[in-house]
Specification:
mainly beta, two-stranded antiparallel sheet, single chain, 46% strand, seven-stranded mixed beta sheet, 119 residues, 1 helix
Length: 119
Amino acid sequence: MFEFNEKNFLIRGRRGDSARFILNFSSPVDEYCIHFFINKNIGDKNPIIEKKILNPPTKTVAIELTSKDTEKLECPNFGFELYFWGVKIHKGENFTQTIIPEKFKNLPQMHIYPSIGEV
């Protein structure tokens, strides 16, 4: 199970678990592509995980990570591994805006803990 703290943008979960996050937008986003991504380092050009939702019909967008997605995230046997995540919106080739993090505050972190047991 994953936890999402909306105040400090911290996501915590176990490698191999599935996750579902809800993003609530204040205005319609049906003309945009929502791009959720997870990177090991802030400036990485190729995300480890990325999800794109094209023209969502409502102001609420669900980001779903499968167990195969989170298996891509490495972690030590004890403690956790630090990753960074973000959300951008796109409209065609002429408009891109970073939504999370906003205004250069609180870099959104993801703490990945080891899986427990096997399925």
